[in-house]
Design a protein that fits this description.
The complex is a heterodimer.
Chain A lengths: L2 H9 L3 H17 L10 H12 L6 E6 L5 H17 L4 E5 L2 H14 L8 E4 L5 H5 L5 H10 L10 E4 L4 E6 L3 H8 L3 H4 L13 H5 L8 E6 L4 H12 L3 E5 L1 H12 L5 E4 H14 L8 H4 L1 H24 L5 H4 L4
Parallel strand pairs in A: 1-2, 1-6, 2-5, 3-4, 6-7, 7-8
Helix pairs in contact in A: 1-15, 2-15, 4-5, 4-13, 8-11
Chain B lengths: L1 H17 L7 H37 L6 H8 L14 H31 L10 H20 L8 H45 L5
Helix pairs in contact in B: 1-2, 1-6, 5-6
The chains are: A alpha/beta, B mainly alpha.
Chain lengths: ~325, ~210
């Protein structure tokens, strides 16, 4: 076998071997923990710091602008910010810009409220605390006290109570979402007369305190499409609402100009960005441990090393085999 | 019980989609078609349940909001696309939507995507108190932006010091941008794989947390 043939064979390797290699290096690190460190970047820290400054008098939006196809990247970002907000008692409005994204919002809530999730929050449905609401008990801390005085106990392992309508409002999907954002600059209730569970938003204490986007302090769009720009266009530019981006890695480079121009306060790029936020949450005692994004970072590193090696090997084969010479390239490879 | 069935169905279709990596097969095609069909069906159901019903049908049935008949009928005109004889009627809702979106969106879009971006590119090369890396970053950004713009300026031949060298630098700048995008794309694709593996090994097989 001539030398050229070896290089040619390397360049024409059956791609299924590469898939197999990627598969193996993507599975092994789940069983053998390498413990690769995740250093936080300024773009993610700025979102964390901004949310950390807020409290129960403020409110934020988390917009679930992604479909199941990118939930591996977008979901951990949204979940991390949601948990941060709940920890700081910041009311959270949740929206979705497309019918499929509505399901992602419900899935995120299910995850954060699920007792099997480490550091979950105990959810209280809107109807369940109707009597307290009608008695005028709507402040977070007096509400917890009154709720527990009724004999309710925080389950073991739960980080706190979250009351629907007080701590969060699952607004969900509404059509022509860019115009919905624009409409919410005047009134949130007009755009969402009822929430995703059929509750009247007008009766929700958090909507009575934060009637429009002008009374909201930040919107995070966890996005798998260009729709994230709607928040910049219709909320940031219209009335100066601070926006944070949580984007898939594929999109990240395209949206750095918005960061550079100061139109967004920060940007989480891909699984790595979500992992950074999880690290910040854990380091500051907000969550007991890091979550799925962080656990995936060892795999990410291992897969990247393999891809880098394959690129180097491919280039060696290309040049050593003389394929960079035009005459050989014309030879029919 | 339903959760367990759901997880098994999810695992089956994950493996069905990944079976394409070996070669095209009927199971993969079944999964692919189901994704399209179920997404469309789910979208329709959600749209009806949380939009059409509570925002149009229920208020109309309550008899208080007859004004909603106007957008309701306008929306229904979309369906005339399927009836060739009166399909021209569908142009009205499309025209209404395009006109509204254009009118509302144009000024804000210009501001967000053009004017603010221009503003963001107008940074001082040097100011007292600036760290060296900020100065370097600003110089690279301004020269890079100019070089990339020169590359896309086709009214003059790319020759000489300004257009020739500028466009060559522009190509390099664009290539660096493509490289960064490629790197992020690889990261993104691997992330999606990680998500599926976490589902298979964790939710399905319970081998990992």
């Amino acid at each position: 076998m001539s030398a050229v043939n070896i290089w040619e064979k390397m360049l024409n390797i059956d791609r299924r071997w590469i898939f197999l290699g990627i598969g193996v290096v993507s599975i092994v690190p789940f069983f053998i923990n390498f413990g690769m460190p995740v250093r936080t970047t300024r773009e993610v820290e700025s979102i964390y710091d901004y949310v950390d400054e807020l409290g129960s008098d403020n409110a934020i939006f988390i917009s679930f602008d992604f479909a199941p196809g990118t939930s591996a990247e977008n979901m951990p970002m949204a979940v991390a910010v949601m948990r941060h907000a709940f920890y700081n008692d910041i009311p959270v409005f949740m929206t979705a810009n497309y019918p499929l994204h509505h399901g992602m919002m419900l899935a995120a809530m299910e995850y954060v409220f699920n007792p099997t999730t480490e550091g979950f929050y105990e959810d209280v449905d809107f109807e369940d605390w109707k009597d307290l609401r009608e008695a005028g008990v709507t402040g977070k801390y007096e509400l917890i006290e009154a709720w527990e005085n009724q004999g309710n106990q925080l389950p073991e392992g739960a980080l706190g109570w979250v009351f629907e309508g007080r701590d969060y409002a699952a607004l969900g999907y509404a059509p022509v979402f860019n115009l919905v954002i624009l409409g919410m600059t005047v009134s949130i209730e007009t755009q969402y007369p009822v929430d995703a569970h059929g509750n009247s938003t007008g009766e929700m204490p958090m909507l009575q305190e934060h009637k429009s986007l002008r009374e909201v302090d930040m919107a995070l769009t966890s996005s798998g499409s260009g729709a994230c720009v709607w928040w910049v266009t219709y909320a940031r530019e219209k009335m100066g609402l601070p926006i944070a981006f949580g984007l898939t890695a594929v999109m990240a480079t395209d949206y750095f100009p918005y960061l550079q121009a100061g139109q967004v306060i920060g940007q989480m790029g891909g699984l790595r960005g979500a992992a950074e936020y999880e690290v910040l949450l854990t380091e500051n005692g907000i969550t007991p441990s890091t979550d799925k994004a962080f656990r995936g970072m060892d795999v990410q590193s291992a897969a990247h090393i393999l891809i880098i090696l394959l690129i180097i090997m491919g280039n060696i084969a290309f040049f050593a085999g003389g394929f960079h010479k035009k005459t050989l390239l014309k030879g029919g490879r | 019980m339903y959760d367990i069935i759901g997880i098994w169905v999810g695992a089956f279709f994950t493996l069905a989609i990944y079976s394409f990596l070996y070669k095209e097969n009927p199971i993969y095609r079944l999964a692919e078609h189901l994704v399209v069909g179920i997404s469309a069906g789910y979208g329709m159901a959600i749209t009806y349940q949380i939009t059409v019903k509570p925002r149009l049908i229920d208020p109309l049935l309550s008899g208080d909001h007859w004004i909603l008949l106007i957008p309701g009928i306008l929306g229904l005109l979309y369906i005339t696309r399927f009836i060739p004889r009166i399909s021209w009627l569908s142009r009205y809702p499309i025209g209404f939507y395009m006109g509204t979106a254009m009118g509302v969106g144009f000024p804000l879009t210009m501001k967000a995507n053009v004017l603010r971006q221009l503003e963001g590119a107008m940074v001082p090369l040097y100011q007292s108190g600036m760290a060296w890396y900020e100065v370097t970053g600003n110089i690279v950004m301004i020269l890079g932006t100019l070089a990339a713009l020169i590359y896309f300026f086709f009214s003059k031949p790319h020759k000489g010091l300004f257009f020739g060298t500028g466009s060559k630098i522009g190509i390099w700048v664009i290539m660096v941008g493509f490289g960064a995008t490629f790197g992020f794309t690889v990261m993104g694709r691997i992330s999606l794989l990680i998500g599926r593996i976490q589902y298979l090994l964790g939710d399905w097989l319970h081998l990992i947390e």
